[in-house]
Amino acid sequence: MTARPPVTVLLADDHLIVRQGLSALLNSDGGFLIVGEARTGREAVRLAASLAPDVILMDIAMPLLNGLEATLQILAANPAAKIVILSAHSDDEYIQRMSEAGVSGFLEKQTSAEILGRALREVAGGRPFFSPSIAKRLAETAARHLDRNGLAKTDGPRLTSRESEVLQLVAEGSANKQIAGELGISIKTVENTASTS
Protein backbone atom coordinates (compact mmCIF):
# COMPACT_ATOMS: atom_id res chain seq x y z
CA MET A 1 0.00 0.00 0.00
CA THR A 2 1.43 3.38 -1.01
CA ALA A 3 1.33 6.24 1.48
CA ARG A 4 -1.01 9.07 0.62
CA PRO A 5 0.73 12.34 -0.23
CA PRO A 6 0.32 14.98 2.48
CA VAL A 7 -2.47 17.54 2.22
CA THR A 8 -0.86 20.87 1.29
CA VAL A 9 -2.06 23.79 3.41
CA LEU A 10 -1.76 27.57 3.20
CA LEU A 11 -2.17 29.24 6.61
CA ALA A 12 -3.69 32.75 6.58
CA ASP A 13 -3.79 34.49 9.97
CA ASP A 14 -2.32 37.81 11.04
CA HIS A 15 -1.11 36.47 14.41
CA LEU A 16 2.34 34.85 14.25
CA ILE A 17 1.74 32.74 17.36
CA VAL A 18 -1.45 31.30 15.84
CA ARG A 19 0.35 30.43 12.59
CA GLN A 20 3.23 28.85 14.54
CA GLY A 21 0.81 26.84 16.68
CA LEU A 22 -1.19 25.62 13.69
CA SER A 23 1.98 24.78 11.82
CA ALA A 24 3.32 22.76 14.77
CA LEU A 25 0.01 20.91 15.18
CA LEU A 26 -0.32 20.04 11.51
CA ASN A 27 3.36 19.10 11.10
CA SER A 28 3.18 16.76 14.10
CA ASP A 29 0.25 14.96 12.46
CA GLY A 30 2.41 13.91 9.51
CA GLY A 31 -0.44 14.09 7.03
CA PHE A 32 -0.05 17.78 6.19
CA LEU A 33 2.53 19.98 4.51
CA ILE A 34 2.45 23.73 5.20
CA VAL A 35 3.34 25.31 1.85
CA GLY A 36 2.93 28.95 2.84
CA GLU A 37 1.85 31.45 5.48
CA ALA A 38 -0.02 34.71 4.89
CA ARG A 39 -0.26 37.59 7.38
CA THR A 40 -2.80 39.64 5.41
CA GLY A 41 -5.78 38.91 3.20
CA ARG A 42 -3.97 40.34 0.20
CA GLU A 43 -0.99 38.06 0.83
CA ALA A 44 -3.40 35.10 1.11
CA VAL A 45 -4.86 35.91 -2.33
CA ARG A 46 -1.38 36.12 -3.88
CA LEU A 47 -0.08 32.93 -2.24
CA ALA A 48 -3.25 30.98 -3.03
CA ALA A 49 -2.71 31.75 -6.72
CA SER A 50 1.00 30.97 -6.78
CA LEU A 51 1.06 27.91 -4.47
CA ALA A 52 -2.31 26.27 -5.32
CA PRO A 53 -2.58 24.46 -1.96
CA ASP A 54 -5.07 21.65 -1.38
CA VAL A 55 -6.68 23.68 1.43
CA ILE A 56 -6.45 27.28 2.62
CA LEU A 57 -6.98 27.74 6.37
CA MET A 58 -8.17 31.34 6.70
CA ASP A 59 -8.93 33.72 9.57
CA ILE A 60 -11.65 36.34 9.07
CA ALA A 61 -10.13 39.35 10.84
CA MET A 62 -6.98 40.24 8.92
CA PRO A 63 -5.46 43.55 7.78
CA LEU A 64 -5.23 44.75 4.16
CA LEU A 65 -8.20 42.58 3.17
CA ASN A 66 -10.39 40.64 5.55
CA GLY A 67 -10.94 36.90 5.23
CA LEU A 68 -14.31 37.32 3.51
CA GLU A 69 -12.95 39.56 0.75
CA ALA A 70 -9.84 37.41 0.37
CA THR A 71 -12.08 34.34 0.03
CA LEU A 72 -14.20 36.03 -2.64
CA GLN A 73 -11.11 37.01 -4.64
CA ILE A 74 -9.50 33.58 -4.32
CA LEU A 75 -12.67 31.80 -5.43
CA ALA A 76 -13.23 34.27 -8.28
CA ALA A 77 -9.75 33.44 -9.61
CA ASN A 78 -10.02 29.71 -8.85
CA PRO A 79 -13.53 28.38 -8.14
CA ALA A 80 -12.03 24.97 -7.25
CA ALA A 81 -10.03 26.42 -4.31
CA LYS A 82 -10.95 24.90 -0.96
CA ILE A 83 -11.10 27.34 1.94
CA VAL A 84 -11.71 26.52 5.59
CA ILE A 85 -12.37 29.41 7.95
CA LEU A 86 -10.82 29.12 11.42
CA SER A 87 -12.02 32.09 13.42
CA ALA A 88 -12.94 33.40 16.84
CA HIS A 89 -15.79 35.20 15.06
CA SER A 90 -18.54 32.63 14.77
CA ASP A 91 -21.73 34.65 15.04
CA ASP A 92 -24.50 33.81 12.59
CA GLU A 93 -23.84 36.74 10.24
CA TYR A 94 -20.17 35.80 9.75
CA ILE A 95 -21.03 32.15 9.20
CA GLN A 96 -23.80 32.99 6.73
CA ARG A 97 -21.66 35.43 4.75
CA MET A 98 -18.73 33.02 4.55
CA SER A 99 -21.02 30.17 3.48
CA GLU A 100 -22.57 32.34 0.77
CA ALA A 101 -19.04 33.27 -0.35
CA GLY A 102 -18.39 29.58 -1.02
CA VAL A 103 -16.11 28.36 1.78
CA SER A 104 -15.73 24.60 2.14
CA GLY A 105 -15.67 24.67 5.92
CA PHE A 106 -15.91 26.79 9.04
CA LEU A 107 -14.32 26.00 12.40
CA GLU A 108 -14.22 27.91 15.64
CA LYS A 109 -10.79 28.64 17.11
CA GLN A 110 -11.77 26.55 20.14
CA THR A 111 -11.71 23.48 17.87
CA SER A 112 -9.54 20.53 18.92
CA ALA A 113 -6.49 19.49 16.91
CA GLU A 114 -8.27 16.23 16.06
CA ILE A 115 -11.29 18.01 14.54
CA LEU A 116 -9.01 20.45 12.70
CA GLY A 117 -7.13 17.56 11.07
CA ARG A 118 -10.35 15.78 10.19
CA ALA A 119 -11.84 18.96 8.69
CA LEU A 120 -8.79 19.60 6.49
CA ARG A 121 -8.78 15.98 5.25
CA GLU A 122 -12.52 16.06 4.50
CA VAL A 123 -12.28 19.35 2.62
CA ALA A 124 -9.18 18.22 0.70
CA GLY A 125 -11.22 15.16 -0.33
CA GLY A 126 -13.97 17.39 -1.72
CA ARG A 127 -16.39 17.20 1.21
CA PRO A 128 -17.52 20.27 3.18
CA PHE A 129 -16.87 20.32 6.93
CA PHE A 130 -18.43 22.65 9.48
CA SER A 131 -18.14 22.40 13.26
CA PRO A 132 -21.26 20.55 14.49
CA SER A 133 -22.61 23.64 16.28
CA ILE A 134 -22.05 25.76 13.16
CA ALA A 135 -23.68 23.18 10.86
CA LYS A 136 -26.77 23.22 13.09
CA ARG A 137 -26.95 27.01 13.07
CA LEU A 138 -26.54 27.11 9.27
CA ALA A 139 -29.48 24.73 8.85
CA GLU A 140 -31.61 26.84 11.19
CA THR A 141 -30.66 30.06 9.39
CA ALA A 142 -31.45 28.53 6.00
CA ALA A 143 -34.87 27.47 7.26
CA ARG A 144 -35.58 31.01 8.51
CA HIS A 145 -34.75 32.45 5.07
CA LEU A 146 -37.42 30.47 3.27
CA ASP A 147 -40.89 31.85 2.68
CA ARG A 148 -44.01 29.76 3.29
CA ASN A 149 -43.65 28.21 -0.19
CA GLY A 150 -40.11 27.02 0.54
CA LEU A 151 -38.55 29.65 -1.74
CA ALA A 152 -35.67 31.87 -0.68
CA LYS A 153 -36.67 35.29 0.63
CA THR A 154 -34.96 38.22 -1.05
CA ASP A 155 -32.81 40.49 1.10
CA GLY A 156 -31.85 44.09 0.59
CA PRO A 157 -28.92 45.28 -1.54
CA ARG A 158 -25.40 44.01 -0.75
CA LEU A 159 -22.03 45.62 -1.31
CA THR A 160 -19.94 44.38 -4.19
CA SER A 161 -16.54 42.85 -3.44
CA ARG A 162 -14.80 46.04 -4.62
CA GLU A 163 -17.06 48.26 -2.48
CA SER A 164 -16.33 46.12 0.58
CA GLU A 165 -12.60 46.27 -0.15
CA VAL A 166 -12.65 50.09 -0.39
CA LEU A 167 -14.77 50.31 2.76
CA GLN A 168 -12.35 48.06 4.66
CA LEU A 169 -9.37 50.25 3.68
CA VAL A 170 -11.27 53.42 4.63
CA ALA A 171 -12.10 51.84 8.01
CA GLU A 172 -8.40 51.02 8.47
CA GLY A 173 -7.62 54.74 8.03
CA SER A 174 -6.15 54.67 4.52
CA ALA A 175 -6.37 57.87 2.49
CA ASN A 176 -8.18 57.85 -0.86
CA LYS A 177 -4.88 58.23 -2.73
CA GLN A 178 -3.39 55.23 -0.86
CA ILE A 179 -6.49 53.13 -1.57
CA ALA A 180 -6.41 54.05 -5.25
CA GLY A 181 -2.74 53.07 -5.50
CA GLU A 182 -3.17 49.84 -3.60
CA LEU A 183 -6.21 48.69 -5.58
CA GLY A 184 -5.05 50.04 -8.94
CA ILE A 185 -8.11 52.25 -9.42
CA SER A 186 -8.60 56.01 -9.81
CA ILE A 187 -9.11 58.32 -6.85
CA LYS A 188 -12.47 59.29 -8.34
CA THR A 189 -13.56 55.63 -8.27
CA VAL A 190 -12.52 55.42 -4.61
CA GLU A 191 -14.46 58.61 -3.77
CA ASN A 192 -17.56 57.41 -5.63
CA THR A 193 -17.41 53.96 -4.06
CA ALA A 194 -16.90 55.31 -0.54
CA SER A 195 -19.77 57.81 -0.90
CA THR A 196 -22.29 55.24 -2.21
CA SER A 197 -21.42 52.48 0.28
In percent terms, what proportion of residues is strand? 5-15%
Side by side, the strands of the main sheet go 2-1-3-4-5-6
CATH topology of the largest domain: Rossmann fold
| Individual helix count | 9
CA-CA gap between termini: 57 Å
Using the 3D structure, state the CATH architecture of the largest domain.
3-Layer(aba) Sandwich
Shape designation: globular
Helical/strand content category: alpha/beta
The helical percent reads: 40-55%
Tally of individual domains: 2
Would you report the number of β strands? 6
Which homologous superfamily in CATH is the superfamily of the largest domain? Response regulator
Weakly predicted, low-confidence segments: none
Biggest sheet record: 6 strands, parallel
Would you kindly provide a written description of the structure presented here, covering whatever features stand out?
The chain is an alpha/beta fold. It has 2 domains: 7-144, Rossmann fold; 161-196. The chain contains 9 helices and 6 strands. It has helices at 16-29, 41-51, 67-77, 92-101, 113-124, 132-144, 161-171, 176-183, 187-196, and strands spanning 7-12, 32-38, 55-58, 83-87, 105-108, 129-130. Strands 2-1-3-4-5-6 form a 6-stranded parallel beta sheet, sandwiched between helices. Helix 3 links the parallel strand 3 and strand 4. Helix 2 packs parallel to helix 3 (67-77) and helix 8 (176-183) packs across helix 9. The relative contact order is 0.11. The mean pLDDT is 81.
